[in-house]
């Protein structure tokens, strides 16, 4: 019975060790997830700027202001995506400790979650603009068009940020499951959970 228990323990230990992921691999994948998100955000921004400029020139009234706001809003999105991609390109993680990599990853998760909350405020602001348009004949088209655009952009960013948060959170949970190990010491079995 003791041999079977020892064999089972060694097999479990070797299986866990073979499937364990290093902190550096984990954090590199975390950065890749963020990078793909910034490419997606940049693509969204470019598409919205192109269609926004076209609509701004082509249409009048509410549609003109809708497209105008989409074009301008996405200048900011393009700037954020460009800055983030340039920042990630020069990122050297070799000097980071395991705990610092995890801290940076969790900070990224929190960033997406906080931004999702801000996105709800954008949508509320857009709804307020549409409501205010009803009481303002002079700026009706501008307020309604801007409000619709802000709701659209806020909704996109809300879905984007929640999706990126969920992906990063699941990535961390999967990593934590694979860094669990079992060891044999002079005092018996030990269980180690890596963070």
Quick recap of the structure?
The chain is 81% helix and 6% strand. The chain has helices spanning 2-19, 23-58, 61-89, 98-133, 140-178, and strands spanning 180-185, 188-193.
Instruction: Enumerate the spans where pLDDT stays under 50 for 5 or more consecutive residues.
Output: 13-20, 191-195
**Backbone CA Rg:** 24 Å
Helix content: over 70%
Q: Name the helix and strand elements from N-terminus to C-terminus, one letter apiece.
A: HHHHHEE
Question: What this model shows, in words?
Answer:
It is a single chain. With 195 residues, the protein is mainly α. It is 81% helix and 6% strand. Strand 1 (180-185) and strand 2 (188-193) form a beta hairpin. The radius of gyration is 24 Å and the shape is elongated. Mean pLDDT is 87; it is low at 13-20 and 191-195.
Write the SSE topology.
Layout: H1 2-19, H2 23-58, H3 61-89, H4 98-133, H5 140-178, E1 180-185, E2 188-193
Antiparallel strand pairs: 1-2
Short key terms for the protein model shown above:
195 residues; mainly alpha; 81% helix; elongated
